[in-house]
Amino acid sequence: MHQDPDAPGRPAHRPSRRAEIVRGATTAFSRLTYAEATVEEVAVECGVAPTAVYYHFGGKEELFDQAFASCLEGFSASIDHIRGNAETLNEQVLREVIYAGWAWWRTHPVEARFLTLHLGGATPQSRRTYEAWQERHAQRAFDYLAESERPPRSSRKAREQYASKLMAFNFLNQLLTTAQTTWIDGPLSRLPVARLEVALADILVPVMMGTEQPAPS
Q1: Range of the structural domain that residue 75 is part of
Q2: Which of 183, 181, 173 is nearest to 204 (CA)?
Q3: Is residue 61 part of a domain?
Q4: Which of 34, 78, 80, 174 could make an S-S bridge to 122, C-beta 3.0–4.6 Å?
Q5: Mean pLDDT of 156-169
């Protein structure tokens, strides 16, 4: 049958609710551990039926993995914005990166609570995602060093320096997470954010750069 070209078209296909469900899962997992949360609770958070969740995701594990990766990507995007606009990566830019990470934590409290509650991941895939994320950021720490301070990648010195950077990044991550969590819910919430940012950067920049702080006079 010939369709009248002036007749109303078929209703547009409803866009996928995948992103909406991931946001709901992030909220649910920010309140409950992976073991405690259920697909039904995620569905309630999104205002959809559980069957809608299963239509887009294979189950709770896949949903958690996607929400976890999305939170890490959001945090990284805030840092990438600073790095991408810097002419040269140096100590000052590293300090700005730390400030940006702190700002993301403050302006994304749901995602921050999610990552705090499930730091390191809660499933095999999310743990692999976290390890890859850590390694990527640890390797990028070398970008802040002068070319003359970067050893050849295949050398023993490079491997030792990389191990040192990875340890420094882990220290940075743990310290920031602890400070930011206690700022959200604990005694640090009474302190001005600007003072905390500067104090943390004063500790972390020398650790990441491998430089020594001058002795107090």
Answers
A1: 70-209
A2: 173
A3: no
A4: 34
A5: 72
Separation between Cα atoms, residue 142 and residue 150, nearest integer Å? 7
Q: Which two tokens stand for residue 51?
A: 């069957």
Helix or strand or coil: residue 96?
A: helix
Confidence of residue 149 (pLDDT cuts 50, 70, 90): low
179 and 199 Cβ atoms separated by less than 8 Å: no
Q: Does any domain span residue 5?
A: no
Mean pLDDT of the chain: 81
Q: Would the pTM of this model clear 0.85, i.e. be above it?
A: no
Q: How many domains does the chain have?
A: 1
Decide: residue 115, CB within 10 A, 0-12 exposed, 13-18 middle, 19+ buried.
buried
Give the pLDDT confidence of 56-97 residue by residue, as tens digits.
999 999 999 999 999 999 999 998 999 988 888 888 988 898
Torsion angle of the four alpha carbons 182, 183, 185, 187, in this order, in degrees rounded to the nearest 10: 70
CA-to-CA distance for 176 and 169, rounded, in angstroms?
Answer: 10
- d(CA 59, CA 55) in angstroms, rounded, equals 9
- Domain harbouring 184, CATH code: 1.10.357
Give which of 112, 99, 106 is closest to 189, Cα–Cα. Answer: 106
Residue 210 backbone zone (phi > 0: left; psi -120 to 50: alpha; other: beta): left
